[in-house]
Specification:
By secondary structure, the protein is mostly helical. Helix content is 74%, strand content 1%. The protein has 19 helices and two strands. InterPro entries: MFS, MFS_dom, MFS_trans_sf, NO3_transporter.
Length: 450
């Protein structure tokens, strides 16, 4: 799929272009999805006491919150190819708001588990965000655009850790008891999700030249594939070993981030004897690194591409993954709060840069099946979170041991990057596309305010 008039700069304060409106709405929508997706995580200590949950049951709900996302991410990429990211995001946000608000009706482990399972579907928003920015921005900045939009979206994991305990505390100050307070607090992200879905439909468009239905009517885009065509697109992506290598890589970076988002608050609460608010604040620092860390991953991906083409993007991804695994192993051994926070921030830097580097490579794997590739790789993140979840549901393993084993797994997964290769023909084509995209802006940064 070839989309014309892609932007070759990211002008942050310019909302007059469809490219920049898509950029800002896509990261904000993903940010809000994180707010709903992990809104309950920093309140789990209260939920645990209210519903009488064991460690194993908490682990099962963590797995549930990311498991369903694997399936939805696989489907949502193909859906984007068919109906466009604008409609796909609108439906996901509006429908996803219902279980977020509905979790407040949970009165047992079983109903709480089902609610977290349903909420997990909104995690597929990541694929739409990456899809939308991939078709809006040119090769010289697409790595930065993808990384920044996803990073600022992931930032929702940090703001959620900070805001939800504050919302909960505010409700307690108004006289609401704890058992009703956590339920009422979840209404806030649900309402915001619904409003965001409506705004996404009203203020964005699918591509620089218009919506997919208009482009198809003008003959600028191939007709929407039927079920067989969509299946062929998915199979084309699924048959590519590089896609599955990136699936594993993303499982070892974004999957790890999702796991930390789920356990960080309760980890600091239990291990360092902190208050719920203090534990949430510290856990929030991990997610807040997304304000620049994932963007750095994309910027370095674009810079490596300038010097060494697609091979450069792959080399940078390997470096980031290796450093992530080492930092995670060190974090697992910290028993002093100050040291634990410091190493956590270093680990956070590399895990998020690795995510940005991964989606600096994804747009170049198969442009005709971009949605399918993004969906499969994106699903890898949740598959990794599910696998990691089993480490933290076991009564026999402490959280520290689980984190250490997870660090070892990341280092092993980094070797999968070596499978990702491109033909000389593709390298030459993309090098030319990069040069053409830079054009008169050679020497200018990818990010600018105006």
């Amino acid at each position: 799929m070839e989309i014309r008039n892609k932007a070759n700069r990211i002008r942050l304060l310019n909302l007059s272009t469809p490219q920049m409106r898509a950029f800002h709405f896509s990261w904000f929508a993903f940010h809000i999805c994180f707010f709903g997706w992990f809104g309950i995580a920093p309140l789990m200590a209260v939920v645990r006491d209210d519903l009488g949950l064991s460690k194993t049951q908490i682990g099962n709900t963590i797995i549930a919150s990311v498991a369903i996302t694997i399936i939805v991410r696989l489907l949502i990429g193909v859906l984007c190819d068919r109906i466009g990211p604008r409609k796909a995001y609108t439906w996901l946000l509006c429908l996803g708001s219902l279980p977020v608000m509905g979790i407040g009706f949970a009165d047992s482990f079983e109903t709480f588990f089902l609610a977290r399972l349903a909420i997990g579907a909104i995690g597929a928003s990541f694929v739409i965000t990456q899809y939308h920015t991939s078709i809006m921005f040119a090769p010289n900045v697409v790595g930065t655009a993808n990384a920044t939009s996803a990073g600022w979206g992931n930032l929702g994991g940090g703001t959620t850790q900070i805001l939800m305990p504050l919302i909960f505390s505010g409700l307690l100050m108004l006289g609401v008891n704890e058992a009703f307070g956590w339920r009422l607090a979840m209404v806030v992200p649900g309402v915001v999700l619904f409003i965001c879905g409506v705004c996404y439909y009203l203020f964005t468009q699918d591509a620089p030249n218009g919506n997919f239905e208009d482009l198809r009517a003008r003959g600028e885009l191939p007709p929407a594939s039927g079920e067989s065509g969509a299946g062929q697109t998915f199979l084309a992506a699924a048959r590519d070993i590089r896609v599955w290598a990136l699936f594993v890589v993303y499982a070892a970076c974004f999957g790890v981030e999702l796991t930390i988002n789920n356990i960080a608050a309760i980890y600091f609460f239990d291990n360092f004897e902190l208050s719920l608010a203090a534990a949430g604040m510290i856990a929030g620092l991990f997610g807040l690194m997304n304000i620049f860390a994932r963007t750095l991953g994309g910027i370095f991906s674009d810079l490596f591409a300038r010097k060494a083409g697609l091979k450069g993007r792959v080399r940078w991804l390997f470096i980031a993954m290796l450093c992530e695994g080492i930092a995670l192993m060190f974090f697992s051994q910290m028993h002093v709060l100050a040291f634990a926070i410091g190493i956590m921030l270093v680990f956070s830097l590399f895990v998020q840069m690795a995510e940005g580097a991964t989606f600096g490579v994804v747009p170049f794997i198969n442009k005709r099946a971009l949605g399918a590739v993004a969906g499969i790789v994106g699903a890898g993140g949740n598959a990794g979170a599910v696998a990691a979840g089993f480490l933290f549901r076991s009564e026999a393993l402490s959280y520290q041991q689980g984190l250490f084993y997870l660090g070892v797994a990341v280092i092993i997964a980094s070797l999968c990057v070596l499978v990702v290769r491109f033909s000389d023909e593709v390298e030459t084509q993309e090098a030319k596309a990069y040069t053409d995209a830079v054009g008169e802006d050679a020497g200018a940064g990818a990010l600018s305010l105006r």
